[in-house]
Amino acid sequence: xxxxxxxxxxxxxxxxxxxxxxxxxxxxxxxxxxxxxxxxxxxxxxxxxxxxxxxxxxxxxxxxxxxxxxxxxxxxxxxxxxxxxxxxxxxxxxxxxxxxxxxxxxxxxxxxxxxxxxxxxxxxxxxxxxxxxxxxxxxxxxxxxxxxxxxxxxxxxxxxxxxxxxxxxxxxxxxxxxxxxxxxxxxxxxxxxxxxxxxxxxxxxxxxxxxxxxxxxxxxxxxxxxxxxxxxxxxxxxxxxxxxx
Length: 245
Ligand code: SF4
Ligand code: SF4
Hints:
alpha+beta; binds iron/sulfur cluster; about 15% strand
């Protein structure tokens, strides 16, 4: 049987088109197991016009990443037994402009490797051929790099690669579980922007002044700068877990 995951070069092309006309339309928005990166969550809650606390409470559950040991938010399915995404509608994705990276990139899979010598990131792509997906019968051909561009993945890849750096640091410096206090703080820093902003503004983070100097936009309330400050704070927490708990 052919491996469903085929390596693909960025300039190779594949035939794929997903439109409301495909027989399987919306099929991949069921049986949901959707982990959100912090940037996915930022885009979704901003697109929905919700505070981070409301978005997390209404749409997500908190888990511990099985490989990383870091806290991660996953979407709560809307129903059982179909386990549909809470955002799927009859006419497709209800949050299309802000859909998560994993929804954008399908049917590709992206993996990233960092050189120990230079720190440079190298990305590789794979094509995932799942039998239920009829998109491969569609007429449109595109290269991998064209798919990445047309799905608006550049911002997602850039921001999610920052998270990969944090995961690599965690695995290197602190393999195994974090203390629950550190897990809570990292979750707030990565996912709960409003609580993190309030803690920064209220002077409740040790080292918060330095963070505001390093990320001036965070103090002004810029969501992305706040996420970058949150990642920096999470790096600090990982390095000092056990001392600060
Ligand atoms: S976010 Fe949109 S594309 Fe992704 S699973 Fe939900 S409805 Fe489907
Ligand atoms: S299964 Fe494939 S073709 Fe069908 S809706 Fe999902 S991505 Fe589109």
